[in-house]
Amino acid sequence: MLSPYPADMPLTFIDRLQRRFGWLAVPNVTITLIIGQAVLYMANLPTKLGMRLQGVSLDRVMLDPAKVMEGEVWRLATFMFTPPNIGPLFVIFYFALLHLFGSTLEQQWGTFKYNLFLLVGYIANVAAAFLGAALLGAQVQEIGGSKLVLASITAPNSFLYLSVFLAFARLYPDFIINLFFVLPIRIKWLALLAWISYAYVLVTGNSMDRALIIATILNYLLFFGGEHVREWRQGQRKRTFQSQAKRATAAARHVCAVCGISSVESPRTLFRYCSKCSGQRCYCPDHIRDHEHVIDKEPVV
């Protein structure tokens, strides 16, 4: 059987993982996630619309590390299907974008790498949720002096799915989205706003939000950090080369010793050097024949 990799191309760590575990890749994961979220959204719709019929409570499926430690382990899986808390019209737009981003990444990377991206993000977000709950619990212990416990606080899945958006924006920065269905904007600017919001929440957010943002950033850097480093190094080499080339090809600058006019100010002027003057003294055509010769006195021995 022929290998899909050229013989002279070095295998990356992800390539080696794919060779060994590629058969475990699950196709169309994005569609599965969207269907699960859509089902829970519709089941919870009566509550959102204020109807008497009670919908399904999302509190039973969201990730709460304290509840997980009490035995509600299903939250480790069901929180992935928690729908966004937005209106019906915008949730359709959200599902459409999530399908676009996820399916495009799967086509660009392949099923295994996309699965790995989601898996690493999932593990990082779950670990960050427990870390954030522990840090908040430590604050409670410090204030009240009670035994350290995990704070009962839910961790959203929005940071995980936002990492899919950031990955798409990295691969297709000039993709245009019609914001609010009207205003066209390149996705790289939306990604920039997302990074700015990350920085803001890192400064002002609680321990849970900070831990989830750090987990998302680490997941992004694991897949794109090497590219950023290579681009930075290439940019440094390019700037160095351009600076050296500019110095090598820069035209000599001539300045008239009398009037001070230079070749930069008057590039068409033919400057001359006087052979009777000491040193390299340059003059413009108006003063090459009409100037006082400057002769340095020889030192007396």
From TrEMBL:
Keywords: Membrane, Transmembrane, Transmembrane helix. It comes from the Bacteria. Signal peptide: none annotated. It is found in: Membrane. SUPFAM superfamilies: Rhomboid-like. It comes from Lacipirellula limnantheis. This is Peptidase S54 rhomboid domain-containing protein. It is a multi-pass membrane protein. The chain crosses the membrane at residues 21-43, 85-102, 114-136, 148-168, 175-198, 210-229. The lineage of its organism: Bacteria, Pseudomonadati, Planctomycetota, Planctomycetia, Pirellulales. One of its GO terms (cellular component) is membrane.
